[in-house]
Amino acid sequence: MSKTTENTPEFLENVSSALDPSKAIEYVSAATEKGVEQTKEAYAKVKTGAEETQKALEASFETAKAVGSNLSLKTIAVLRANTEAAFSHFEALVSVKSPSEFVELQTAFVRKQVEQTVEQAKELQAAATKAAEDISRPIKSAFEKAVKELKVA
């Protein structure tokens, strides 16, 4: 028991220093400053993320606009080629002199149109696939960057 009594003044001194109002104010002030600093850092990260997302969306929209125009032009070119082929075919049919010649011209035209349509579909599909990749690239890179930053934090 003598050890307890020997430690009593030290204990009281520690307790009184812990309950010292000036130290309590310092502690609360330090904790508040730390909280404010962490809030500022979090806000800066959110703000940066929002700005990067906005830039990525703007880039995607610009790409979509350009790619949409390109796809429209390709589609118009395909339609024009098919229309011209059809008019040429009708001109040839007008000058037909026999039913066998008509069947021969018609068969050749249909075969050629089917082959051409398959080729055009492949070209348009490739262009559409590339367009989708181009449009999604800015968003994808922004997302990957955000995930990477979350893993680091």
Automatic annotation (TrEMBL):
It holds the Pfam family Phasin_2. It comes from Mesorhizobium kowhaii. This is Phasin. It comes from the Bacteria. Residues 57-142 form the Phasin domain.
